[in-house]
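Hi everyone, sorry if this is the wrong subforum. Our group has a chain we'd like a structural model of before ordering constructs, and none of us has done structure prediction before. Sequence below.
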Amino acid sequence: MRAIQRRHFLIGTAGAAGALLVGWLAGGPRQRLLPRHALATAAGETALNGWVKVGSDDTVTVMMSQAEMGQGAHTGLAMLLAEEMDAAWDSVRLEQAPLDPIYNNQAVVAE
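Answer:
Right subforum, don't worry. Here is the predicted structure as tokens:
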């Protein structure tokens, strides 16, 4: 009886691993850090990726892909960024993200 349960477990595990492998291969590579077009930067600013820019005056700008609707997402994300980068709270800026697939905000405009 014990061998049958082990066999079922191994077959189920192999099936699940196969399904995950097929799903991973079918999805294709996804680049979630770099936009198609480089972020617009002012003089003295450097874009670390598609989400964060750092200025020569130690300002940190985070790109927000969604609108603030009262849930505090803008403040929360800015606080997390300030903590992770050891930046002063008053040096963190928010900027609305441009249209790009990495921000998943094209469907909003299409509707």
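For your construct planning: DSSP finds three helices and four strands in the chain. Residues 70 and 76 are 11 Å apart (CA to CA).
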